[in-house]
């Protein structure tokens, strides 16, 4: 079996990280993949090092005949049986490039498409009916699409997988030493770019309340400012500066050593507006770190209704503070529970489990 993965850019993001982890672990599962991408990005070198065959072709527009010919030739020359796209535009391009070739085109959805314009939503609706299978990363995401688009002919839920090897890190450098932080203060953090999909501002308001207590802490925001939504970052940064949090809160931007930093945290917090999975939340839970996350539907799903994390009310910094104070008073108990949960989570969310399920999906489609 040979599969072509279609990607947009190779920048750091949830979908790109998932595909990279698949590429790094695919040799253990007895099928072959190639990667076809439109743009380079921060993860390009890691994809090269994975040993996966890469092809870069970039369409000038969504009806670029030259692109379709190049993509079609790559698929034919490499005896590709399945084309697995990770963006709607790539599924559209793959569908046209494989007309009359009897190839299976799959599409994995990694977002809700909430900010899409009329044309993008129309294309998404059309693609949903043309793919051989639509893969959703959570049941809540699947339910959202079914309600919005009414009819989705073939679909399945396949949770994202995490490469457990990258979570077993040895500290290259203490983040506390790098930033000159106190050894006695609680180190709290979150991971996620400053986009409208996340609610970092509620965390900022929580930190202001936490500052009024006698709890000593430092907080790390790990994630980049959005080029298209810079006001989100600016609002959070300004709030922290204006409310005397400058010595406690650090905006680290994009980091290549996220697992290393995560392993040094005492607590992981997260607040989402409309995540479809929450890779950073799962990674933190897998590392045995006590996790606080808001009661967004998918967060309840991945934490088993709060069994694997502490759930607080969305956009309610006071509820988060109350839950956090209880954690501080019972910190050893929370840490023991978090460590115990990793055994269950590793089986459920490992990249090995994800690839095993993918292989079964591919085999089933080829039999149809």
From TrEMBL:
GO terms for molecular function: glycosyltransferase activity. Keywords: Glycosyltransferase, Transferase. Its EC number is 2.4.-.-. Coiled coil: none annotated. It is an enzyme of class 2 (transferase). InterPro entries: Glyco_trans_1, Glyco_trans_4-like_N. Pfam families: Glyco_transf_4, Glycos_transf_1. Residues 13-165 form the Glycosyltransferase subfamily 4-like N-terminal domain. Residues 173-340 form the Glycosyl transferase family domain. This is Glycosyltransferase family 4 protein. It comes from Arcicella rigui.
């Amino acid at each position: 079996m040979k599969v072509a993965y279609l990607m947009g850019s190779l920048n750091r993001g949830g979908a790109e990280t998932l595909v990279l982890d698949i590429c790094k672990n695919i040799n253990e599962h007895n099928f072959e993949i190639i990667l076809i991408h439109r743009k380079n990005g921060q993860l390009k070198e890691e994809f090269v090092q994975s040993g996966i065959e890469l092809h870069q072709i970039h369409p000038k527009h969504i009806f670029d005949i030259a692109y379709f010919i190049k993509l079609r030739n790559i698929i034919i020359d490499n005896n590709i049986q399945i084309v697995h796209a990770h963006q709607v535009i790539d599924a559209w391009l793959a569908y046209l490039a494989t007309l009359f070739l009897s190839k299976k085109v799959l599409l994995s959805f990694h977002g809700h498409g909430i900010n899409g314009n009329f044309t993008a939503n129309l294309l998404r609706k059309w693609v949903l009916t043309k793919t051989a299978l639509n893969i959703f990363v959570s049941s809540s995401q699947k339910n959202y699409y079914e309600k919005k688009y009414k009819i989705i002919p073939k679909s399945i839920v396949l949770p994202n997988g995490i490469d457990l090897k990258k979570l077993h890190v040895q500290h290259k450098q203490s983040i506390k030493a790098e930033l000159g932080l106190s050894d006695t203060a609680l180190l709290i953090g979150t991971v996620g770019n400053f986009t409208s999909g996340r609610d970092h501002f509620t965390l900022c308001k929580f930190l202001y309340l936490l500052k009024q207590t006698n709890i000593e802490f430092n907080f790390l925001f790990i994630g980049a400012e959005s080029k298209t939504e810079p006001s989100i970052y600016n609002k959070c940064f300004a709030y922290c500066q204006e409310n005397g949090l400058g010595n406690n809160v650090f905006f680290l931007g994009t980091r290549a050593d996220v697992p290393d930093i995560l392993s040094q945290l005492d607590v992981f917090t997260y607040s989402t507006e409309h995540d479809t999975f929450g890779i950073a939340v799962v990674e933190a839970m897998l590392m045995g770190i006590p996790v606080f996350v808001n009661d967004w539907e998918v967060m309840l799903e991945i934490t088993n209704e709060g069994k694997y994390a502490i759930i607080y009310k969305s956009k309610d910094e006071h509820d988060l503070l109350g839950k956090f104070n209880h954690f501080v008073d019972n910190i050893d108990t929370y840490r023991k529970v978090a460590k115990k949960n990793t055994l269950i989570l590793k089986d459920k969310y490992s990249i090995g489990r994800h690839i095993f399920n993918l292989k079964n999906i591919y085999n089933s489609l080829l039999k149809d």
